[in-house]
Amino acid sequence: MPIVAPSLLSADFTRLADEAKMLNTSEADWFHLDVMDGIFVPNLTFGMPIISQLRKLSTKTFDVHLMIVQPERYIEEFKKAGADILTVHYEASTHLHRTLHAIRQAGMKAGVALNPHTPVQLLEDVIEDIDLVCLMSVNPGFGGQKFIENTYKKVLKLVDMRNDSQTNFLIEIDGGVNQLNAAKLTDAGADVLVAGNFIFSSNNPIETIKSLKYCR
Ligand code: DX5
Ligand code: ZN
């Protein structure tokens, strides 16, 4: 069964407390929190203050996805805000090895996200320093975009790399996940399914979360 991580990005921001409580009662495993800076991606969202407020209401693992330049500036702050997993972009981290070590040192799981054009092979030399690889299956910045089909191939390659290196990082898929691709992604080897629009724009988010959890 995949780990299901609803993305706050598509929630109703006027009712964040209700949305967090709804997720508490659901079969969601994680809460995916998208931090955007308007520079790395053409959109702005939220940062530490919202995350630390939500931390008080949520019982879920906080999976924080930083879409910001120089993410190493805020590692300690996101730990304090309540992040359990901190994911930085390969494309935004000049000293990725140092950043991954700093994330683990701060007591969090270290994630790396790859844009759709970034080959998974580029992670080969830091593979042992990674707890999670987030494959972007849309160009980051917005919810509700169309899933990029090339992602399946990237999952298969990552599974090979994981076997060859005898490591056990999780493979997360972020963007355009829905009932049409969830099972195929899981079969290919994806461990974590992030979903925003599919969950929060549905009539019954609790049931929609369940449909992802039991997609196999
Ligand atoms: C996109 C974000 C995603 C987004 C996914 O830049 O990283 O986490 O919320 O949303 P959907 O599932 O709507 O594509
Ligand atoms: Zn995300």
Automatic annotation (TrEMBL):
Substrate binds at residues 7, 65, 141-144, 174-176. Its cofactor is Fe(2+); Mn(2+); a divalent metal cation; Zn(2+). The active site is at 34 (proton acceptor), 174 (proton donor). One of its GO terms (molecular function) is D-ribulose-phosphate 3-epimerase activity. Catalyzes the reversible epimerization of D-ribulose 5-phosphate to D-xylulose 5-phosphate. Belongs to the ribulose-phosphate 3-epimerase family. This is Ribulose-phosphate 3-epimerase. It comes from Thermaurantimonas aggregans. The gene is rpe.
